[in-house]
Specification:
- This protein is mostly helical and 308 residues long.
- The protein is 70% helix and 0% strand.
- The chain contains 13 helices and no strands.
- Helix 6 packs parallel to helix 8 and helix 7 packs antiparallel against helix 8 (160-183).
- The longest helix has 25 residues, at 10-34.
- The N and C termini lie far apart (59 Å).
Length: 308
């Protein structure tokens, strides 16, 4: 796979200077900040809201998020901008997208423009700020995406303009689709329209991030009406039960991710063939559906009496 090389002259200069002065502690801090835009953090936030606190808000936020998750790789596979460390010897890749693959494997590491982490953080935390409208949440909705974006530049995996574009897309998804969901009464119809707009990526995207996102979208859109009709679990105010639900959900994600890979050879899963992408899409669709619609079936089985 090949890509395009373009950047402003100041971008690699700034990145090289920063990495020269970053130091070991700076790398560690940047790695931690970057985590706030990764799938584990997004699963934890959405899971806490969905399983514990506010199921309705989680569904609205989840819709915004799956749109952003799909939009970023669809745009990446049009622009084809390769990552900074491909082009500049003075820029190091300090935290690859896929730590198990070669850092120069574009299919595994993805393209550079826009920054997916920045898009995810701006969408998730921006949506929370837009819905809740409290000062500390608004500050969080600005500060966390800002730090995530900066960390991606420090780690050498994105140009500053990648991050700027990610912030723009993320906040647009947060605001636009929050307002759209207020206007549209039929969520199933809205989800169908979004899915139809996302499907064309199957015909031209050749990086795994798009198919991961598409599977996530499919699982989410099927799980929401299924839960509303057949499960209808209740949120909880208990700290203990909330902790159990989140821990269990993260465990379900990890176990299913491992189990659904087992029938296939690693070489096949990492190959650049459409059938491998299809398997990835189905795998993530099953994982998200199970987490949001099947896993909550056990909630009514776990109860504690006051004082127990």
């Amino acid at each position: 796979m090949k890509g395009n090389i373009f950047y402003f002259s100041w971008e690699p200069t700034v990145m090289e200077w920063i990495q020269q002065h970053l130091g070991t502690i700076g790398v560690e801090i940047a790695g931690v900040l970057s985590w706030f835009g990764e799938e584990t953090m997004l699963v934890a936030i959405l899971g806490y809201l969905y399983w514990c606190r506010n199921k309705s808000l989680a569904k609205q936020l989840g819709t915004n998020l799956v749109v952003a998750l799909v939009a970023a790789p669809m745009l990446k596979n049009i622009v084809f901008r390769i990552r900074p460390y491909f082009n500049h010897n003075g820029i190091r890749c300090l935290k690859p997208i896929d730590s198990t693959a070669d850092i120069y494997n574009i299919r595994a590491q993805g393209y550079s423009f826009p920054s997916g982490h920045s898009t995810n953080a701006a969408t998730a935390f921006g949506s929370l700020a837009w819905y809740i409208r409290k000062r500390w949440v608004i500050c969080m909705g600005i500060l966390i995406p800002l730090l995530v974006g900066i960390s991606r530049v420090l780690l050498g995996v994105h140009y500053p303009t990648d991050v700027l574009a990610g912030w723009g897309i993320g906040y647009c998804c947060a605001i636009l689709f929050s307002e759209v969901q207020k206007k549209v009464r039929n969520n199933n119809l809205l989800h169908l329209v979004i899915l139809i707009c996302a499907i064309p990526g199957c015909f031209y995207c050749r990086t795994s991030d798009y198919f991961t996102a598409l599977g996530t979208m499919l699982g989410f859109f099927v799980a929401v009406p299924f839960e509303e009709r057949f499960v209808r679990f209740k949120e909880t105010g208990s700290v203990l039960i909330s902790a159990l639900r989140i821990a269990g959900g993260i465990a379900v994600f990890g176990v299913l991710n491992k189990l659904l890979k087992m029938p296939f050879r690693k070489a096949f899963l990492e190959s650049d063939v459409w059938s491998a992408y299809l398997v990835r899409t189905i795998r993530y669709g099953i994982i998200i559906f199970c987490m949001l619609a099947v896993y909550p079936l056990v909630f009514d089985k776990i109860r504690f009496r006051k004082g127990e």
